[in-house]
Design a protein that fits this description.
About 50% of the residues lie in helices and about 0% in strands. The protein contains twelve helices and no strands. The longest helix has 15 residues. The N and C termini lie far apart (about 40 Å).
């Protein structure tokens, strides 16, 4: 970075950049999203400090690999790299970034960004990925039977909402009959996804309405795969 920032200034700018990523997700591919994920973890936690997920946990392995590949990169350099990539992709991002908003980092289940869909072609899952609660509610009201229909890798709508940490959408899905303990092809539930992504509020909500500590195909419970800052919640 051309400008020399103090530690506090760098952290503030990084936080704004991480928040701005929300508005860019639909324009990024899987490789880019994983790169951002790895840098975010490196910047906020430090070098990868967890064991590689089992071979059936496909999404979790992609995330772990992206993080682990950064080796001993310092938190400061990770923040700088993150900001530089954001700036390269969107030179004017600082003009639109919101200060003080919660950062969004969920990329464990990567969206299909190969084709830009028009609104009329979007499915329930597409609206969930976009985080558009209003459209999700509209689609559920018209066709509530889709609430538990699995898609890629056996993921149901609640898996996607939990992966992104969209609590309001999770609530809408539950109200329309979503199976809170539905398991994907790897045996993971919505609680697994929220826990591994570090979505505290989503984990808190799911636990409050009775989400079970189910083991996935590797014998791991949501607590076993949880971000270290969330383990005490279980």
């Amino acid at each position: 970075m051309a400008e020399k920032l103090s530690t506090s200034e760098l952290e503030e700018k990084f936080s704004r950049a991480a928040n701005h990523l929300q508005s860019m997700v639909s324009k990024l591919d899987s490789t880019q999203l994983l790169e951002f994920y790895g840098l975010y973890k490196q910047a906020t936690v430090g070098p990868c400090n967890t064991s590689r997920p089992g071979w059936l946990q496909t999404q979790a392995k992609y995330k772990w690999d992206a993080w682990n590949a950064l080796g001993d990169l310092s938190k400061e350099d990770a923040m700088i790299n993150y900001i530089e990539i954001i700036t390269k992709l969107d030179p004017n991002w600082e003009q639109n970034a919101q200060v003080g908003s919660k950062s969004w980092i969920a990329v464990s289940t990567l969206p299909n960004t190969d084709v830009m869909l028009s609104d009329k072609d979007k499915t329930l899952l597409d609206w969930i990925k976009d985080g558009n609660g209003k459209k999700v509610e509209e689609m559920l009201t018209k066709n509530s039977f889709t609430v538990n229909v699995p898609g890629k890798d056996g993921m149901t709508p609640i898996h996607w909402a939990a992966d992104r940490g969209y609590v309001s959408i999770i609530k809408s899905l539950i109200e329309h009959g979503a199976d809170i303990n539905a398991q994907d092809d790897s045996g993971q539930t919505a609680l697994h996804y929220s826990a591994s992504c570090g979505h505290k509020e989503a984990v808190k909500y799911l636990l409050s309405i009775g989400a079970k500590q189910i083991e996935d195909n590797d014998g791991c419970t949501p607590k076993d795969v949880a971000d270290k800052d969330l383990i005490a919640m279980f």
